[in-house]
Amino acid sequence: QVQVVEYGGGLVQPGGSLRLSCTASGFTLDFYAIGWFRQAPGKEREGVSCISSSDGSTSYADSAKGRFTISRDNAKNTVYLQMNSLKPEDTAVYYCAAEYRGSGCSWYGYDYWGQGTQVTVSS
User: Fold this and answer.
1) What stretches of the chain adopt beta strand conformation (E)?
2) Which pLDDT does position 74 carry in this prediction?
3) Is the separation of the CB atoms in 52 and 33 below 8 Å?
4) CA 2, CA 7: separation in Å to the nearest integer?
């Protein structure tokens, strides 16, 4: 069964850090661009960050730039989203998605989606 699974969410205080993980079962992530998305209550889903399957190039939403870092470890078939200096407005369900493509990444065309992991930033 082809599945993408994300985990690592939880409750953290403002200014704290959290690392999310994304892994796949049924296929390898080596040839997939990976995107992280989030959806806050009452808000539309938005792209947070993505990473290429080939050269490791990355993109970040303005809200994530300078605070979040996306990386991948193909040997572990895992992509990470390191989130630092977390703010209450970062509270959302975070989703990992995979897109089969040779280079680059975008906010569109993802083939597989995870179930989401809750991140709550509150004191």
Assistant:
1) 3-7, 10-12, 18-25, 32-39, 46-51, 58-60, 68-73, 78-83, 92-100, 112-113, 117-121
2) 85
3) yes
4) 17
- Reference 49, options 29, 26, 72, 30; nearest CA is 72
Q: How confident is the model over 35-53, as a mean pLDDT?
A: 96
Residue 51 pLDDT > 90 = yes
Comparison of pLDDT for 2 and 21, the residue scoring more: 21
The CA radius of gyration of the chain, in Å to the nearest whole number, is 13
CB 82 within 8 A of CB 16: no
